[in-house]
Amino acid sequence: MGTLLAPPPLHPCTSFLNSPETTPKSCAASFLRQGKTKIGYLALCRSLADGNKNNGGVRSMQDGSSIIEGGKKAEGDSKVIDSKDKLATDREEVAEVIGGEGKVLTRVTHSIVFVTAEAAPYSKTGGLGDVCGSLPTALAARGHRVMVVSPRYLHGGPSDKKFAGASEVGSPTKIYCFGGEQEVGFFHEFRAGVDWIVITSPFPAFRYSWTTLHTTVLEIHMEIYLVLLVIIRHDFRFTLLCHAACEAPLVLPLGGFTYGEKCLFVVNDWHAGLVPVLLAAKYRPYGVYKDSRSILVIHNLAHQGVEPAASYNNLGLPLEWYGAVEWVFPTWARTHALDTGKAVNVLKGAIVTADRILTVSQGYAWEITTAEGGYGLDELLSSRKSVLNGITNGVDAAEWNPSLDEHIPSNYSIHDLSGKVECKIALQKELGLPIRPDCPLIGFIGRLDYQKGIDIILSATPELMEEDIQFVMLGSGERQYEDWMRVTEAHYRDKYRGWVGFNVPISHRITAGCDILLMPSRFEPCGLNQLYAMRYGTVPVVHGTGGLRDTVENFNPYARESLGEGTGWTFSPLSRENLLAALKIAIQTYREHKSSWEGLMKRGMERDCTWDKAAIKYEQVFEWAFIDPPYVI
Ligand SMILES: Nc1ncnc2c1ncn2[C@@H]1O[C@H](COP(=O)(O)OP(=O)(O)O[C@H]2O[C@H](CO)[C@@H](O)[C@H](O)[C@H]2O)[C@@H](O)[C@H]1O
């Protein structure tokens, strides 16, 4: 499936991504022609002289644009400028640095600010954390200056140590929302070329996870519990996150320089959706951020940040901007006769005001413009088709690599698969299943909710258990499904294991040890587990929807003169019968057609799905974002 509409022409200064004629060098030259101020050059030179200690080689200019010395290529090149004595002090000298003897590759890049509710390894409850932990690093490695802003969650347990490397930066900033002045603090860690910013607030509702606060407060006093129950709403935490993220590029001296006003905000899901609205309503009317752009990345349209209309006053937006986030539920969705259905919808506001919109696969970019996949926002999204694209997520090759993975008992690769069977045996041992290397082992990893099609697994399991297979599920979520997993395990002691909880090492061991990964998602914007599975030679069986359809190629044993083609099985429409039929074919192929199976495994392992590849596509969208004027009323 192609992108939704023909892309706009390339920006001349970045067309080197596609055109051999325009080189990075000429981009740097064009920067010089634009007559940037001397102070900008001095900043550049000073930064270069710092020996590339910070920001992966990207040096911020006073006007917000950046010049880099070719990302990794420049690293360690001591000939760039090796001491402060050699600070360039005029344009010519800088031009030499930029163009000199082809030693240093430089080009104009962006100052990028990711805004997200979670970013691994600091915080992760699902795929959003993975993406916002990996994509920024990939972009920084390509030479962009990248900051990631997310909340600092504290749980009062060992996981709080993840924030230990972050130290306070700048001074606490006052933000006006929720009927008063709120104070936020910024903590900073420079890691993997990225400025990781976590924000804090004195409010317990901000600092603690729901479960921690719930337990803590219950222990304190029931009355306080009720009061805090009101203020713990997610919209408080994420409203503050968005306001703070808008201030961060202006006030935080990271590596000695602020990011400045010419930023590219990459806002992820509804939690960060207030950012483009704030840019349009609070900043641009006063001449601030008029050169910035925002890109909304939709990881999951099912969650939109809908609150009662009265909560508009909490958002810290001017009164006249109500229309941007105004949302009216259809009549059928109203709760009683007097319910007017009026609400505010943060994601809707972001869709209206973002300069561009991205989803995490091309298939999903189309699905969200349909009544079936649009969750009420399909018409609005259709009206923005000209700025809507899909880019498939990548895989963090450092974390998900069977030949290096520290969580698995035996490493393996496409050239030597022997370790995979050892992983299977170890997993069977760990789970207390009969050790049977030849028995097909099926796995599932994910949130236990409607999206993931757990109800279909549940209805198919009795028939599946009639097969000679083993089945392991790892997940947490809806209580009814967690209970079902426990009961099913008790019932099928020799065949089924249900691991209730969120456990990253186990997820690696299941991915490596299983033969088949099942993903019957009702909808799936991209899906990461099928990508991880393919990298580990575990063959996915998936519902053909969204990113699953885009990434799993259906097995065809007759293609290529019977050598076979494809990396797994996709079935559609989603039903118990189709799921069972696809799984049974997979099981039969595993048992009876060993060479076909090996082909399936190897084709999956060979797929190029690195973040680096996705990052190049993101860069293309960044350029398009800067071609059009920003959203202003
Ligand atoms: N119990 C458990 N223990 C350990 N690890 C667990 C786990 N349950 C889930 N995970 C991990 O969490 C991540 C889940 O990623 P997904 O992309 O499958 O789903 P999610 O629906 O959260 O993300 C949304 O955003 C992502 C990112 O864009 C999209 O791919 C996706 O389609 C969209 O729904 C994977 O890394 C997985 O291994």
Question: Order of strands across the biggest sheet?
Answer: 6-7-8-5-4-9-10-14-15
Q: What is the name of the CATH architecture of the largest domain? A: 3-Layer(aba) Sandwich
CATH class descriptor name of the largest domain: Alpha Beta
Q: How many H/I helices? A: 23
Can you tell me the CATH superfamily of the largest domain? Glycogen Phosphorylase B
CATH-defined fold name of the largest domain: Rossmann fold
Share of residues in helices: 25-40%
Distance between the termini: 34 Å
Sheet having the most strands: 9 strands, mixed
Bound molecules: adenosine-5'-diphosphate-glucose
Based on CA atoms alone, the radius of gyration comes out at: 26 Å
- How many independent structural domains? 2
Based on secondary structure, the structural category is alpha/beta
- Shape annotation: globular
Instruction: Let me know the average pLDDT.
Output: 82
Count of β-strands: 21
Report the β-strand fraction as a percent range: 15-25%
Which regions have little confidence, pLDDT < 50, spanning 5+ residues? Answer: 1-106, 208-232
Pathway: Glycan biosynthesis; starch biosynthesis
Catalytic activity: [(1->4)-alpha-D-glucosyl](n) + ADP-alpha-D-glucose = [(1->4)-alpha-D-glucosyl](n+1) + ADP + H(+)
GO cellular component, one term: amyloplast
Subcellular location: Plastid, Chloroplast; Plastid, Amyloplast
